[in-house]
TrEMBL record:
PROSITE patterns: PROKAR_LIPOPROTEIN. It comes from Paenibacillus naphthalenovorans. The keyword Signal applies. Keywords: Signal. This is Uncharacterized protein. It comes from the Bacteria. Residues 1-26 form the signal peptide.
Length: 424
C-alpha cells in the first residue's frame, strides 16, 4: 500500500522545501563545512533506507500570507524495517479552513487505511500462504536517477555562500549548523527558482482545491530572507532541521503579499520506536479483498471532468471515461479514454485511449496492468475500488522493486478518482 495523495503532497513538498532551504546556505564557514553537511544529509538518508531498524520521522510545514495561515500540513511516520511494520498519519488544514486527515497501518498480515473526511477504515487481511513482503518505506533520494547531476547543480549554486552559515561542535558530539541570508545576499538563481516554485505550488493547489484562498502570485516574486538550523547527533544523523523562507510578490491585481514558509523535519526514537496495531472496535470498518477487490457490481461506466484554469477561472474542457466491461475470476477487463471539447485540443494534446486487463497475482504484494500511452509507449497502471460508487485509477507507474512503486503524473491535470455514472 502506498501513501495517500495528501500524505505524499505533505511529504514531497516538505522535503522539497527543506532541500531548497538547505541548498541556499549549505556551504559552511567551517573549512570543509559544506562537505560535512552534505555528508551528514547523505548519511542520514542512507541510514533511513538501510541501516536503522526503526525510527520516527515527523514533518510539518506552515505557509502564511501577511501572518494569516493559508496552509498547514503535518506527517507523522513510524517505521520498523526489522519487524516490517509501518504506521503513518497526516493532517492538512487548507486555506478555506477545511481539515482532512490520513491514516494508514501496514504489517505482513494486515493493511488499514482511512482517507480524507470519510469516517471509515478500509481493512485488508492477507492469508498466511501469501508470504507478503512490504519492503522499506523510505527511498534514498541520492540513489534516484539523475541525482548526481542535481548534486552538481546544487554544488555550483551554493559555492558563493560559504561565509553566511556557522557550524558549531556540540559537547555531546555532532554539530549544529545555522545561518541566514538577507534579501541582498540571496543569489539571483535562488530568486528565480523560488519565483517559479511558488507559482507552480499555488497553481497546483488551486487546481486541487477549487475553494482555495491562496493568493494568485503573478509578478515581482523575490526572497526577502532565508534562515535555518540543522542539528546533527554524534552518530552523524540529522535529528532536527528547521527552515524559514520569507518571500514577497504581487498578485494579478497588484496587491503586495508577504509569504512565509516554515518547515520542520524531525528524526527521533531511533531504535526505540514502538508500533501498535490500532484497535478498531466500534469503528466503521469495510473489509477489502487482498486481491483486486472487484466484483460484478463494479461493471459499468465511470467519469470525471478534465478541468483547466484559464483566464483566472476553472473551465471544464472534457471528460475522462473508465468503463469496466467484465469482472470474472478476479480478472478485470475494461477500457479508458478521454474526450476534449472543440477548441481546447492544444490545452490537452496527449489524450489517452486504451483497453486493459487487470489480473492481480495473489502470490505477489503488488499487481499492475500494462497499457499503451498516446506516444505508443508501454506503461504500467493500477486500479482499485474506492468508496461506494467510485474507482481510483493510477497511471504511469514506475515499479521500483517487488515491494514498492512510484506514481508519476500522467498529465499535470490528471485526476484518478472516478464516479459511477448512474444516468446518461
Amino acid at each position: 500500500m502506498k501513501l495517500s495523495k495528501n500524505a505524499m503532497t505533505v511529504l514531497s513538498f516538505t522535503i522539497g522545501a527543506c532541500v531548497f532551504i538547505s541548498t541556499a546556505f549549505a556551504d559552511m564557514a567551517l573549512g570543509s563545512g559544506y562537505d560535512r553537511f552534505k555528508g551528514s544529509i547523505k548519511n542520514t538518508a542512507a541510514q533511513m533506507e538501510k541501516g536503522l531498524n526503526n525510527y520516527t520521522i515527523e514533518a510539518l510545514y506552515t505557509l502564511k500570507d501577511n501572518d494569516q495561515t493559508l496552509l498547514q500540513a503535518s506527517l507523522f511516520n513510524k517505521i520498523d524495517n526489522e519487524k516490517q511494520v509501518f504506521e503513518s498519519s497526516g493532517k492538512i488544514q487548507k486555506s478555506n479552513g477545511e481539515t482532512s486527515t490520513e491514516y494508514s497501518y501496514s504489517d505482513q498480515k494486515l493493511s488499514i487505511w482511512k482517507s480524507g473526511t470519510e469516517d471509515k477504515y478500509y481493512v485488508t487481511e492477507y492469508p498466511d500462504d501469501l508470504n507478503r513482503k512490504i519492503g522499506n518505506r523510505f527511498t534514498n533520494p541520492f540513489n534516484e536517477k539523475g541525482a548526481p547531476e542535481v548534486e552538481k547543480i546544487v554544488d555550483a549554486i551554493v559555492g558563493n555562500l560559504r561565509d553566511y552559515v556557522q557550524a558549531e561542535e556540540r559537547p555531546e558530539g555532532g554539530r549544529v549548523y545555522s545561518g541566514s541570508l538577507s534579501e541582498a545576499q540571496v543569489p539571483a538563481v535562488v530568486n528565480a527558482v523560488s519565483s517559479f516554485g511558488i507559482k507552480q505550488f499555488i497553481s497546483s493547489q488551486s487546481r486541487a482545491d477549487k475553494n482555495s484562498k491562496l493568493p494568485d502570485i503573478d509578478s515581482d516574486v523575490f526572497v526577502k530572507k532565508i534562515s535555518g538550523t540543522a542539528v546533527e547527533n554524534k552518530a552523524g544523523l540529522l535529528e532536527n532541521v528547521t527552515g524559514d523562507v520569507f518571500l514577497s510578490g504581487k498578485d494579478k491585481n497588484g496587491v503586495q503579499h508577504d509569504l512565509s514558509l516554515n518547515v520542520v523535519l524531525k528524526l527521533s526514537d531511533i531504535g526505540n520506536t514502538k508500533i501498535t496495531k490500532p484497535d478498531l472496535t466500534g469503528a466503521n470498518v469495510e473489509k477489502v479483498s487482498h486481491s483486486s477487490g472487484f466484483s460484478s457490481k463494479h461493471v459499468g461506466k465511470y467519469k470525471n471532468n478534465i478541468v483547466l484554469e484559464k483566464n483566472g477561472k476553472f473551465v471544464k474542457i472534457g471528460e475522462r471515461i473508465l468503463e469496466i466491461t467484465s469482472v470474472e475470476n478476479n480478472k478485470v477487463t475494461g477500457k479508458y479514454y478521454e474526450t476534449v471539447k472543440p477548441g481546447f485540443e492544444s490545452d490537452y494534446p496527449d489524450k489517452y485511449n486504451f483497453n486493459f486487463e487487470y489480473n492481480p497475482d495473489q502470490s505477489k504484494a503488488m499487481s499492475f496492468f500494462t497499457y499503451t500511452n498516446s506516444k505508443g509507449e508501454q506503461e504500467n497502471g493500477q486500479l482499485h475500488p474506492s468508496s461506494s460508487g467510485k474507482i481510483y485509477l493510477d497511471l504511469n507507474i514506475e515499479i521500483l522493486d517487488e515491494n514498492s512503486y512510484r506514481s508519476n503524473a500522467s498529465h499535470p491535470y490528471f485526476d484518478g478518482e472516478f464516479d459511477r455514472v448512474f444516468e446518461e
